[in-house]
From TrEMBL, chain A:
Region entry Disordered, spans: 1007-1041
SUPFAM superfamilies in alphabetical order: Nucleotide-diphospho-sugar transferases (SSF53448)
Alphabetically ordered keywords of this record: Membrane, Transferase, Transmembrane, Transmembrane helix
InterPro entries the record matches: Glycosyltransf_2, Nucleotide-diphossugar_trans
Name of the protein in its database record: Glycosyltransferase family 2 protein
PANTHER family for the chain: GLYCOSYLTRANSFERASE, SLR2126 PROTEIN
UniProt key word Nuclease: no
GO molecular function terms noted in the UniProt entry: transferase activity
Species of the source: Bailinhaonella thermotolerans
TM regions (residue ranges): 248-269, 465-486, 523-541, 553-582, 589-609, 650-668, 673-693, 713-732, 744-766
UniProt signal peptide: none
TrEMBL record, chain B:
Protein name in UniProt: Secreted protein
Top-rank lineage group of the source organism: Bacteria
Pfam family, one: DUF5719
Record lineage: Bacteria, Bacillati, Actinomycetota, Actinomycetes, Streptosporangiales
InterPro entries for this protein: DUF5719
Length: 1041, 474
């Protein structure tokens, strides 16, 4: 072929391209190696393209607006008769693709040199910024994503130059051998736009030819269609959807069967993942495109079957030739990673590579990005940020103070926190299930904070102890960080902000929450500054931002409420006040406030309702409520000085500086409204704290009443005080400049104020985080009991501990220690009383049927961990029906001589046969027997239990006044016991959807209303985006238009 | 007004007034007592109780429950291992007496009104032969651990009676703390008792050489009712009462007056040697005996001290104190040509009252209470419950602080076949310890038996309970 004559037929396809066409035509007709023939196809342009073409070409083929690129080329090829005795080349040009003068020459040079080359493509550069690389060949990954191998906006510095093979080249400027083109059947009609190039090159490669990129040849390409700079008529869909659909189609049509199936799975998963990401980024239109594309491909299997048939059976044989030009497998993951990162960074899911499909308009910079300042290297930026420095300092203080909690033999726990066992999965199980196989069994709902904890645990490697460690032990540095960031809008004075944040983080509320293991207060304490800043946005920000802030506030209020429901009660009157004050002034504030306040009610509905039925429980929080953790006679001065009492309290005067500074703020004449508002909040918080501290509440699980802990209310009060003090801090500089008495008093205030956080930190470090919380908790369930609980009998264990005041605390466990959250799941009142009475009787040694009652609850072991008081040991020893297994200084174990199994068959005479059972459901073989037999399941009777015998439903009964039983016929068979949980499932799904909706509504999204709204270039609102954003991120779309 | 509002100090004044008001509210609502009122333990009648008489063959068995306000109840007496009852007692307040024939333990199981304070005893009497003397045993509840202290196999024939009345097997072990240290021995190890089984172990097989022995009968699983009988070669037989578990302070009460040896046994089951202080409490006060102030007992062994000369025939209690836990008991030897012995042992105070089922005050027999109030003055009410007829009016007995008082029990009407005695501390009384001595003046010599007053299982205190995961943390 070396000596063969080469003929080049240029085909220009235009569609509303009058903006670019003149330059394109100049490029075409100014080639150093002129084309031999030139044909133009106009796909129904309405902008004068047709006229331009008519001027330049002798003949213009006119097609309808809906015709695609491939159809146009096919039409042109049909019109140009083949030339005998020559190698004919087709040079395909878009109307927005201007070739450099020597482009064709360079391409042909290589084409002549390499007889196997059937397709050659130029280096494509950007139309406007002519140094920016657009494409140098293109490939796909196994998910169908187009991959150019270029960085986002990569400049051409010759780094990719050279002739190279590629899977495909763009149709813009593509030089393709006519015979090969016709041999493979031209473009696929199913691909009017997008991916036609890849599909064609794939088939050409499969036919044994080569596809080359010749970087010496250059063309400038505007990518008008894919960048939505013009309407697309060839396909009715959004370009993104068409692009995705075609991507999947090309893969489906060309891959051999095995790879096809794998790609199908990958495509489905990838599409769903991207849909989710787009939803999270609040780009529902993109999400819709993504999912619609998938549906379009999956929905027409016939199309794919035909396409595959057309491509013949050689797919598998030639696949290795094609596959090596695929993008490496990591690319897809990297891309998704970039999307996630982009989304987290608030810039939206920008896809850096493969721009030859729809480009998503990225949202501008969002708030909260001030961690990083503009200049300097990353490390320097991080370590000079005051927020980071403050957090590190607080972290150091925390680590020193919590030295006793950081290492230990066992699990963290104590005080209000039950030792943290299990994994995130256990927490999910607990939250999702409608029946809890704990204690004597309960179908009450798990408290919603378990779900929050499960989410955090899942993120933290699935380890709840890590989640608890971070949230509880780390609450001081976290609260310092949130407080510092929250003050950004109020104050621009960094030292004052640092003071506020440090004072807040080191409040006695925090140290007390840590010492007593109050996870609920710790979480609320961290969230409170966020509430403040979001509430400010709801009231003061521009309407759309305010609405978003309202959703976010509602969501976070729900989280806080789940941990400490008092938060919601406190927020209601404050929100009401704000609505009264600002509702008339700013439009939409009332609605936004209503959103913020009612979202928790919607998200936590059924659980909040149980609290409403039992209002004192609003004063409780996540974890155990025990008398030893509160100061029942909390002094008035402690309440006024923000000290909530209980373990972990510094001296009461430590917070004096904060109060003093806030009082000083009252003397200023400016910003009196802010100071007054802060003080109002503070006094309100203290009033609520007094009421809380003086109220006695019974724990959810029953037991002695104890005073509630006023930590949350005092944290509110502290927030108010710090607002008042912070306002004063703005004037400090002025006052000091003023000199004289003012200067003196200002200095005094500063000194006293700064003493507060320093003293608090010092006191905390000095005393350490001493408290009931420790890290020495070991399992209270003996190995014997744990092992037995896993067997079919499902034996339960009663754990007894004599508290200091003579009270006996007990809990029934099933082979493992209680998980976080489980103690907060109430047991039916009547059952609890029955067990209470039996345990009390057992501990008193009065004899009688107490042991038998415990046995009827399937209790088999009685365990007293730790050193067993002599009287208790003697009492248990002398109990008929109870035999000692062991007694040592680390604890005693007794065993019931006649325990009842979880599942048994009880005949009319009362004789029982044990059946093996699972944790919830059971399946076992029942022998045949006499009449009047009962299948007894020792769980609280309820309508959700179902039992079948060989598939026939059994009639439910109630045994011993509480247990679920079923009447058994005389015949034996396989009996199956299951539990339905329709309502729990229904609520959890509803709640999940509600949370999703609120999250989506709350998340920062794209700034323009609909990033995919089609707008003609001249109408594109270039200014709006530019003005609103701060211009730090490159504005690709705006700049281009 | 306007000037006030515009004044620099107006806000400050308002805040200060509001703060003062809050202070007032907080002060006014502050509860008076720091401790949150914890529900006190509830006094509740015992619902069910069982007792085992170790070997009542030929002896008189007594069963009594103090009169109460309870509803109905039954105390059923059975020979161990047989379902049919020997006797059923349904009237609280009236003792029941019967003769047992079979050489097998007898179990007494009571519920309802009969359970609250059930007391049973077996009293044997022989006027001649090797077993001459009064030998009484309080029928005890099965337990996981029982303590006894008395003469060892070298100075007496000591038999340990074990019975398992539960429906699960029991595995027991006998540990002897002798002068030579703790001994378990093959005979004392791994004593398996099937449900309803009983057996007798001769202590000689466990620790043959011991002069003095403290015994710990403990179970690895299940419970056993344990009893120990000692037969002295020189004459004298009796059952050893169960002693209080080891404690740094033990009060051996009910030492009868009169002549004869008084031998104090002290055992130290722990791992440290003990220097034991011994004091006696008599009608004259509390004092240490000259020359017998202290007793040295090596770890894991037992020792004894003769007290007769110091006591000079006075009824007394002995207070034994040590830095390490000790178990103490006392042997009292009667006078006459043929001797009889009685044993007492350290016991807890009778805070919840105490019942002795079998007392007699006729045909040469006499019953006496020896009451001691070691710390604060004691005031007790003594009620006699005759086998027939109504109970006479109770009498009140005052015991001065730090002294012992002997009370002779007069024969109540209808009590000639026997009567029970109920001793209840009155409100405001200090802790009272005591013992009951039953004596018979026979021609050949005094026969006696002693029973330290054991707290009656009439009431128990039901503690407040809370279903709380706090049970798994500390």
């Amino acid at each position: 072929m070396h000596n063969a004559r080469h003929i080049v037929t240029a085909v220009v396809v235009a569609h509303d391209g009058a903006r670019w066409l003149p330059e394109t035509l100049d490029g075409l007709f100014g080639q150093t190696r002129p084309v031999d023939r030139a044909l133009a196809v106009d796909n129904g342009s309405r902008d004068g393209s047709a006229a331009l073409l008519a001027e330049a070409f002798p003949r213009v083929i006119t097609l309808s607006r809906s015709a695609g690129f491939g159809e146009a080329v096919a039409e042109a090829v049909r019109a140009a008769h083949p030339v005998e005795g020559a190698v004919e080349w087709l040079w395909l040009l878009h109307d927005d693709c201007a070739p450099a003068a020597d482009a064709l020459e360079c391409l042909l040079e290589i084409a002549e040199a390499d007889p196997r080359a059937a397709v050659l493509g130029p280096k494509l550069l950007d139309w406007l910024d002519r140094r920016v690389l657009v494409e140098i060949g293109v490939t796909v990954d196994k998910g169908g994503r187009r991959e150019t191998g270029l960085e986002y906006r990569e400049y051409d510095q010759g780094q990719h130059d050279g002739v190279r093979e590629s899977l495909a080249v763009s149709t813009a400027g593509m030089l393709v051998r006519r015979d090969v083109f016709e041999q493979v059947g031209g473009f696929d009609d199913e691909l009017p736009l997008f991916r036609d190039d890849i599909d064609l090159c794939w088939r050409i490669r499969a036919a044994g030819h080569r596809v080359l990129v010749v970087t010496d040849a250059v063309a400038w390409h505007a990518e008008a269609a894919s960048r939505r700079r013009r309407r697309i008529a060839a396909t009715g869909d959004h370009p993104r959807r068409a692009d995705r659909r075609n991507a999947l189609y090309v893969l489906a049509a060309n891959l051999p069967t095995g790879a096809f199936l794998a790609a199908l799975v990958r495509g489905i998963v990838g599409s769903l993942l991207r849909t989710l990401l787009f939803l999270l980024a609040k780009q529902p239109a993109n999400a819709l495109d993504e999912i619609a594309a998938l549906a379009a491909v999956l929905g027409s299997p016939g199309r794919i079957r035909r396409a595959r048939k057309r491509r013949g059976k050689a797919k598998r044989k030639t696949y290795p030739q094609v596959r090596k030009y695929f993008a490496p497998p990591g690319q897809g993951l990297r891309r998704i990673g970039e999307m996630v990162r982009g989304w987290l960074a608030g810039t939206g899911p920008v896809e850096s590579a493969g721009r030859h499909h729809a480009v998503v308009a990225e949202p501008g910079e969002e708030e909260g990005e001030e961690l990083l300042s503009d200049s300097g290297g990353l490390l320097q930026r991080i370590f000079t940020s005051p927020a980071v420095l403050l957090t590190l300092a607080l972290l150091a203080v925390t680590l020193v103070a919590e030295r006793s909690l950081l290492a230990g033999e066992g699990r963290i726990g104590g005080g209000a926190l039950p030792p943290v066992y299990g994994g995130a999965r256990d927490l999910w199980d607990q939250y999702l299930s409608g029946f809890h196989p704990i204690g004597v069994g309960t179908s009450a709902d798990a408290p919603p904070y378990v779900a929050v904890l499960a989410v955090v645990s899942t993120l933290l490697l699935g380890k709840p102890w890590l989640a608890v460690t971070v949230l509880l032990l780390g609450c001081v540095p976290l609260a310092g960080l949130t407080a510092y960031l929250a003050t950004r809008r109020v104050l621009d004075d960094v030292p004052a902000r640092l003071w506020i944040a440090a004072s807040y983080a080191l409040l006695p509320v925090a140290t007390g929450a840590i010492a007593a293991g109050r996870l609920g207060t710790a979480v609320v304490f961290v969230l409170l500054p966020v509430y403040a800043v979001l509430a400010a946005a709801v009231i003061g920000a521009e309407r759309r931002v305010a609405r978003r802030a309202a959703w976010a506030l509602g969501l976070l209020l729900a989280v806080g409420t789940a941990f400490a429901p008092l938060v919601w009660l406190l927020a209601l009157p404050l929100g009401g006040l704000a609505a009264l004050a600002f509702g008339g002034v700013r439009r939409g504030v009332g609605v936004s406030l209503a959103i913020a306040l009612l979202t928790p009610a919607a998200l936590l509905g059924p659980w909040l309702y149980t609290l409403v039925l039992n209002p004192p429980r609003f004063l409780l929080e996540a974890g155990l409520h025990r008398p030893g953790l509160v100061d029942a006679r909390l002094a008035p001065e402690a309440l006024l000085l923000l000290s909530p009492g209980g373990p972990g309290m510094p001296p009461v005067w430590v917070t004096g500086g904060v109060v003093f500074a806030a009082l000083a703020g009252l003397l200023l004449r400016r910003h009196r409204l802010f100071v007054a508002a802060g003080w109002t909040l503070a006094l309100f918080g203290v009033l609520v704290a007094i009421l809380v501290a003086r109220t006695r509440v019974a724990p959810v699980s029953g037991g002695p009443e104890a005073h509630a802990w006023p930590g949350v209310a005092l944290a509110f009060a502290a927030t108010g005080l710090l607002v008042a003090a912070g306002v004063a801090a703005r004037r400090i500089g002025e006052l000091r400049a003023a000199g004289g008495v003012r200067r003196l008093s200002a200095t005094l205030v500063v000194l006293v104020a700064c003493a507060a956080p320093l003293l608090a930190a010092g006191a905390w470090i000095w005393k350490g985080a001493q408290g009931p919380l420790d890290r020495d908790n070991v399992s209270a369930v003996p190995a014997l009991a744990a092992a037995t609980a896993g067997e079919g009998e499902r034996a339960r264990t009663l754990i007894l501990r004599v508290a200091g005041d003579g009270r006996v605390d007990y809990t029934i466990v099933r082979g493992r220690d209680p998980l976080v959250g489980e103690p907060d799941i109430p047991v039916a009142e009547d059952l609890r009383k029955r067990v209470d009475a039996a345990v009390a009787g057992l501990a008193s040694g009065r004899g009688g049927d107490d042991v038998a009652v415990l046995g009827s609850f399937a209790v088999r072991f009685v365990v007293a961990p730790g050193k067993v008081p002599e009287t208790l040991a003697r009492t248990l020893d002398s109990q008929p029906g109870l035999a000692r297994v062991s007694l040592s200084p680390i604890g005693g174990i007794w065993q019931l001589t006649r325990p009842a199994p979880r599942l048994s068959v009880v005949d009319a005479k009362g004789a029982a046969v044990t059946l093996p059972a699972g944790r919830v459901n059971a399946s076992a073989t029942v022998p045949s027997g006499g009449g009047g037999r009962l299948l007894v399941l020792r769980e609280p009777a309820g309508p959700d239990w179902r039992a079948t015998l060989d598939g026939v439903a059994l009639e439910p009964r109630v045994a011993e006044g509480w247990a679920q039983a079923f009447a058994l016929p005389e015949d034996g068979g396989v009996v199956t016991v299951t539990r339905a949980q329709f309502w729990r499932d229904a609520w959890v799904v509803t709640q999940g959807l509600l949370v999703l909706v609120v999250v989506v509504l709350a998340l920062p999204g794209a700034k323009n209303d609909d990033p995919l709204a089609e707008s003609p270039p001249e109408e594109r609102p270039t200014g709006r985006r530019g003005q609103r954003r701060r211009g730090r991120t490159p504005d690709t779309v705006g700049a281009a238009s | 007004m306007r000037t006030f509002v515009e004044s620099r100090f107006s806000l400050l004044a308002m805040v200060l007034v509001a703060s003062l008001a809050l202070y007032g509210v907080a002060l006014g609502s502050r509860p008076d007592s720091a401790a949150p009122p914890v529900a006190p333990p509830v006094k509740a009648a015992v619902h069910a109780v069982s007792a085992v008489c170790p070997d009542p063959a030929g002896a008189r068995v007594s069963v009594v429950t103090p009169p109460g306000r309870g509803e109905r109840g039954r105390a059923v007496t059975r020979v161990l291992g047989r379902p049919e009852p020997v006797a059923t007692v349904e009237r609280p307040g009236t003792p029941w007496y019967g003769e047992a024939r079979e050489r097998a333990p007898l179990s007494v199981s009571a519920d309802g009104a009969m359970a609250a304070g059930l007391e049973a005893a077996q009293t044997g009497r022989a006027v001649s032969g090797r077993l001459r003397g009064l030998s009484a045993a309080r029928c005890v509840e099965p337990a996981a651990t029982s303590w006894f202290v008395g003469p060892g196999p070298a100075s007496a024939e000591v038999l340990v009676y074990l019975a398992n009345i539960d429906d699960t097997r029991a595995s027991a072990e006998i540990v002897a703390y002798t002068g030579e240290g703790p001994i378990i021995g093959d005979a004392g190890r791994g004593l398996l008792l099937a449900p309803g089984e009983h057996r007798v172990v001769n202590l000689k097989d466990v620790a043959p050489m011991a002069q003095v022995a403290a015994l710990e009968v403990r179970t690895h699983e299940g419970r056993v009712a344990a009893a120990v009988r000692a037969v002295l070669p020189g004459g004298g037989v009796d059952w050893l009462p169960a002693a209080a578990p080891p404690a740094p302070r033990a009060i051996v009460s009910g030492v009868p007056g009169g002549a004869g040896r008084r031998q104090l046994f002290v055992a130290v089951p722990g791992e440290a040697d003990a220097l034991v202080d011994v004091k006696v409490v008599t009608a004259d006060g509390t004092y240490a005996l000259k020359g017998r102030e202290q007793l040295e007992v090596p770890a894991g062994s037992a020792g004894y001290l003769e007290l007769a000369t110091g006591l000079a025939g006075q009824p007394a209690s002995v207070i034994v104190t040590s830095e390490v836990p000790v178990v103490a008991g006392l042997m009292s030897v009667g006078t006459g040509t043929r001797q009889d012995v009685g044993f007492t042992a350290s016991s807890p105070p009778i805070d919840s009252g105490s019942v002795v089922a079998d007392n007699r005050s006729s045909r040469g027999q006499s019953s006496r209470l020896v009451l001691t109030a070691p710390a604060a003055p004691g005031r007790v009410r003594v009620t006699l419950l005759p086998a027939r007829g109504p109970a006479p009016a109770p009498s009140q007995v005052e015991v001065p602080a730090g002294r012992t008082r002997e009370v002779r029990l007069a024969l109540p009407p209808g009590g000639d076949t026997g009567y029970a005695v109920l001793v209840e501390p009155l409100p405001g009384s200090g802790p009272v310890y005591g013992g009951r001595t039953l004596e018979e003046r026979a021609r050949t010599g005094l026969m006696l038996t002693i029973q330290p007053l054991a707290p009656a299982r009439t009431w128990t205190y039901v503690p407040p309970v809370a279903d709380s995961a706090a049970a798994v943390t500390d």
